[in-house]
Amino acid sequence: MSFYALIMAGGVGTRLWPLSRRHRPKQSLKLVGGRTMFEHAVDRIAPLFQPEEIFVVTGAEHVEALASQAPELPTENFIVEPEGRGTAPAIGLGAVHLHRRDPEAVMVVLTADHFIADVECFRRALVVAAQMAEEGHLVTLGIKPSSPSTGYGYIKQGGLCGEIEGFSVFEAQRFTEKPSPETAFHMVESGEYSWNSGMFIWRVDRILEEFQRQMAEFYVQLAEVEAALGTPGYEAALRRVWPGVEKQTIDYGVMEGAADVVVIPVDIGWSDVGSWASLADLLPADERGNIVVGSHLGLDTEDVLIFSTEERRLIATIGLQGVVIVDTEDALLICSKEQEQQVRALVRELEARDEKEYL
Amino acid sequence: MSFYALIMAGGVGTRLWPLSRRHRPKQSLKLVGGRTMFEHAVDRIAPLFQPEEIFVVTGAEHVEALASQAPELPTENFIVEPEGRGTAPAIGLGAVHLHRRDPEAVMVVLTADHFIADVECFRRALVVAAQMAEEGHLVTLGIKPSSPSTGYGYIKQGGLCGEIEGFSVFEAQRFTEKPSPETAFHMVESGEYSWNSGMFIWRVDRILEEFQRQMAEFYVQLAEVEAALGTPGYEAALRRVWPGVEKQTIDYGVMEGAADVVVIPVDIGWSDVGSWASLADLLPADERGNIVVGSHLGLDTEDVLIFSTEERRLIATIGLQGVVIVDTEDALLICSKEQEQQVRALVRELEARDEKEYL
Q1: Is the pTM of this model over 0.90?
Q2: DSSP class of residue B319?
Q3: Domains defined along chain B, listed by start
Q4: Nearest chain B CA: its distance from A224 CA (Å)
Q5: Which residue is closest to B298 within chain A, CA to CA?
Q6: Smallest Cα–Cα separation from B55: which of B102, B16, B121, B17?
Q7: Model confidence over A156-198: pLDDT tens digits?
Q8: Tens of pLDDT along B209-262?
Q9: φ, ψ at A198 (rounded to 5°)
Q10: How far off is chain B from A63, nearest CA to CA, in Å?
Q11: Chain A nearest-CA residue for B315
């Protein structure tokens, strides 16, 4: 069995503004453990893959930064999308690249913007998933929910397909989009749901078959790109085809209607580090509940998250509780923890005002 | 009558940290109207005095910055204290300089760190005060209280001495230090008290007479300095004498026990700009009660004061109420308005830690 990894590294991570920017996307940020999110993503799978088996799909503007973070990866393994069209086209493009190497290859789809605490367990799960994928199943890694989060999609577990190496493999019965708080509560309580981690394992020919069946127009577009692969006309073909590709997520476009999907619920200390609050969960707090990355002097200050890229700037706080402070060279965010979800709205406002230097 | 102004410009303005620093004291800050506090102080009296009649007493470390703000003042009019010993020694040193020019000169003692909205009324009051001073009275400008502030000293008005040019002149019956809230309330309600503005007008020989009577040791020290005035030994004499000078305020040291003190209550839109809150009173707020000097984007933000020296840095706030944010190149303060008085404690903490770069 040939086995490849495809790391999706195309997003920006809007909710981590002002640290995340178009020119400094989330996957290039050192949020945890002194390594960038992309470096963590590569490190995690290094024991399972040779560098030439690890592929990255991203935008042209990010290639240079990502390549410098993983110089061991061959240059040609960075697959460049002319522009982001959602996860389905990104995965499709990666799949045709791998298909040309080995149509029966098993590919692991991973993201560069998640954190995983228990990497050893994660790798064992991938090995089990690869076995299932080789048999023709579309495998998803489900995350055992630690809270009734309304920020994730959920996967309903159906019948048990088997127990392998300590992992239970279930038929995936239904994909559910981000639920209401009440629905989330009942789903988690039932014990029958996993969070959708966005990590998938499948044979290349199987996922292309699903694209053909469920996203027929895109499949034709993909075929045109694949025909040009390895020829001098590849770039031109991609640039010609891509603007006509419809935006779509892999969940909507493929997984919800796919045949023979299985889910492997795992407990690997996963976090999507999707917001300042979720980053706070990963960093150690002092006895007053303050988390500080930077230089801080506080009086009567509790439950604050301070994240600064400016080492020599002192951040002094007096009488603050429940606040997120993010200090960067050219922009400062001060946000009540209760309204942290508004960071996205703030970035939209900057977009509406066309304040490019802060985007 | 010869008439001189002595502007005291020696303080730092701790409560305006992190804007105010040892190297960037309050009198050099552009807090209001695009001019520094010192520039405002000179501008205010320019119609009353020739440049050579305006003297400044300050520390050696501040002379260059102040001189560049008022290049029209003769260099020799900057009287340098080897180190600050409080307002009494600063005024005494200024007085001996003026005494040598004209023992019967009238001197106005002013500060460089107060704001006055109605400068025309202020100047008319000074002219009246100078008339009273020429007759031998020690004159203080009292401020008609706008609130029962516990942050100022108070002066009790005794008998009415006269009405001159629309100003009432009272015998000053008693100087009171910063009162309790209840005492302040009763004092303001009685209508018999003014705030002590720290602005005085008197004949040079009269104030030296009071130093001789009430601060005899300092008077001897002053005499030693005066004897050296105009000789090559002046600097050496000052450096020899000054370390032995006791710290003292003019209020404690002289005014409380002085004979023939009068007070002229004035309503001139005076503020000591002693804290971020008092600065906020001087700046226009938008419809949400926000005062912004700098670049700001706020969601659900009310009653905040933002003061930034970093024009190109964006300050974004979400879900904040009642907060002061002061952004400077190397230090940032975020402080609940309710605990604003703690800024001084924070600076003390920096001193205790010997964090010189932030002092």
Answers
A1: no
A2: S
A3: 3-271 (3.90.550.10), 276-358 (no CATH)
A4: 46
A5: A346
A6: B102
A7: 999 999 999 999 999 999 998 889 999 999 999 999 999 999 9
A8: 999 999 999 999 999 999 999 999 999 999 999 999 999 999 999 999 998 999
A9: 80, 15
A10: 28
A11: A332
